[in-house]
Amino acid sequence: MKKKRSRVKVNQFLIVLFFFAFLCAIIKLAYVAISPVVDGTNLDEFVSQRNTEKETLYASRGDIYDINGEILAKNVNSYTLVAYLSESRTTDPKNPQHVVDKEGTAKALSEVLNMDYDYALSRLNTEGAYQVEFGVSGRDLSENKKAEIEALDLDGIGFISGSKRYYKQGSAASYTIGYARSNEIGEIVGEMGIESYYNEELKGTDGETMYAKDAYGYQMGDAYYTIEPVSGSDIYLTLDSQIQLILEDVINTMEEENEFSWVTFTVMDAKTGAIVGSANSPDFNPNTLEGLTSYVNPLVGYTYEPGSTMKIFSWLAAMENGVYDGEEEFMSGSVEVTGYPIYDFNNAGWGMINYDTGFAYSSNVGATYLALKLGSEKLRSFYESLGFGQKTGIELPGEESGVLRMTYDLETATASFGQGITTTPIQTLQALSILTNDGVMLKPYIVDKIVDENGDITYQGERAELGKKVSSESINKVYELMYDVVYNGLSTSWQPNNVTLAGKTGTAQIAGDHGYLTGNINYIRSFAGVFPYEDPEYIIYISAKQISGGAAAVAKAVRSAVESIANYANITNSESSVDLSKIINLSNYMSSDIETTTEELEKLNLKVIKIGNGSTIINQYPLKNTKVLVGSKVFLLTDSTEFVMPDITGWSSSEVMSFCNLVGLKFNFTGYGVVQEFNLPVGEILDLTKTLEVTLAV
Asked: Among 19, 54, 545, 492, which residue's Cα sits nearest to residue 280?
């Protein structure tokens, strides 16, 4: 009996012990459920770090187009080179999935990527790494470069797919379009121009996904959840690629024939305020950032003393305030204001002349007399009414306001001919719009529309009136005076051959540390114009700092641009002196057969430059609807993976740039003129990692 009672006590003890242990387990589970921290370990963090992965799904960045739908900026596939080092990837020794021959692999990759061999080998010898990358040399690889590496059939080599920004027209309109680059987390971010100003609209909305992962970080099974990204909006600019390329070619020619600090040339639609072209030098290639030395967009960020183009507005101010009589005469040459002499540009003047003639001759003395009649308050007020001293609000980052200084009589006098004040090119264009809209000023704009991923237009740019600033009578009068500048002034060099142009020249001294710089080159030369005179469609403004060719070089650029734009827009005069039989209007040759197209163009006496050995044309320059002269070069890019270096001896720098932009070849110029020497062998397949070094000479 005693033994039986003892056995019962033992059983009771075991039952109590079991229930106690069970209770402890329940308490522990409840504690874990309530608090994620157990024994000093945050289970949520542990699980997220060891078992799950939350990954951002980056939205596809929107494209940028010109007014005609020509692509300017888009995302293209790019690849990052990866070498797998862990032997655990290989399950079949006959088919290795990791790098086995490190020396051979390093040698092959260094040759294809133009990468240092020792660096490549050091990456492959990284201790304990599952996989490695190769820095800048192994990033942003093109489809062609990826295919070239894959053809090497190297063990353990793979690629991570991604995207990068591609700018089809290279340096054309680079300061307007700007550029975007991938940041440290792989997101493409706009850093300049439209890419920066509209970064939020272009980038879209990122999504995300969460999934289980194994010890090596690879996904296991289906994702727990996925929020799909929303693609960025597309932006259509008011730029017309053909007018843009006309301006680029004109500036390239200026570079060949002159030295200068900078040039900026912009064309605006006279009836709407839309910017249809804006070119600058120096510029840069947004694909490589080659040439990028300044982040200031000349159109909105350059502030300088504008010179005599301001006489358009000081003459208008005098007319509007009732102090102008075009027949009234004054003694030109010089005038003294508060003890300081002011001279006409030739110092001697032209004797007694009237104010109408004074405008045509660009008399500083005449401008001074009118300004002193007005007084500083009225002149300043008129300038301000036209937007000088204020930002225009155009859709570009970095816009400056300029400065109006007109407190004293001397400051008022010099402000009348554009000295002692600072303006920007975009301010001048905005003010010039009163000439072509019966005194109504238009707000300049550069975005035509924004279209979301569903094709809906979320923003539409349009003509925006800023009020009538000047009477019709004054506008008609100054417009006639601007005609006289070009056709009855001191020089005929501004007259285009195929259209009538009205305008005003400008020559501004450059301020230095101790007064104005001296010497024949130290000026900012400019021209503000409108054409056709009879029914204006375009407003132009060009300025060039320290250009060696002086006013003559600027005049040549203006004539060339105006004639080309007039031809392109079919607004030439019927009495044009241009031989129309020598002008050829190019068609769209995209997707056409190269041999048939070449034969057709050669029959028109055009010089065809075939690029690549493909059979189908995938790009061309000049673009469709361009009017070219007989004997001009036409570049046709074919669907080829290899390009042969042509003999470019005698080519202009603009022709070299056109070729290089089409094939994606970097280039560098030395000197001015046409091509004399270059470094890449003629007839050999181009290595697009190299740079074409070109020596130019007259």
From this structure: 545
According to the 3-state scheme, what is the secondary structure of 327-345?
A: CCEEECCEEEECCEEEECC
Helices (runs of H) and strands (runs of E) counted in the chain: 20, 35
pTM: 0.73
Q: Which of 406, 397, 469 is nearest to 433 (CA)?
A: 469
Tokens coding 567: 């031809």
Report the alpha-carbon distance of residue 6 to residue 12 in Å, rounded.
10
Q: How far is CA 334 from the centre of its chain?
A: 44
Cα separation, 145 vs 657, in Å, equals 23
Let me know if 93 is exposed, middle or buried by CB neighbors in 10 A (0-12, 13-18, 19+).
Answer: exposed
Classify residue 663 by burial, with Cβ atoms within 10 Å: 0-12, 13-18, 19+. middle
Pairing between strand 447-451 and 234-237? antiparallel
- Find tokens 């494209």 and name the residue: 63
Task: Give the span between the Cα atoms of 496 and 480, in whole angstroms.
Answer: 17
Collapsing DSSP states into helix, strand and coil, what is residue 667?
A: strand
Alpha-carbon span 33 to 27, nearest angstrom: 10
Q: Are 244 and 66 in contact (CB under 8 A)?
A: yes
The rounded distance, in Å, linking the Cα atoms of 592 and 9 is 100
Length of the chain as a residue count: 698
Residue 553, H or E segment: helix 550-568
Place of tokens 């839309």: 274
Q: Mapping DSSP to helix (H, G, I), strand (E, B) and coil, where does residue 30 land?
A: helix
Give the number of other CB atoms < 10 A from CB of residue 443. 17
* Per-run averaged pLDDT (10 residues), the chain, 698 residues: 52 66 67 54 50 77 93 88 91 91 93 91 91 86 87 92 85 94 83 96 87 66 76 96 91 91 97 97 91 94 96 97 95 95 92 94 96 96 97 96 94 96 97 97 98 94 96 95 90 88 94 85 96 95 96 94 90 55 79 91 90 90 75 89 90 81 82 79 90 80
Which pair of structure tokens corresponds to residue 54? 């939350």
**Residues assigned a catalytic role:** 308
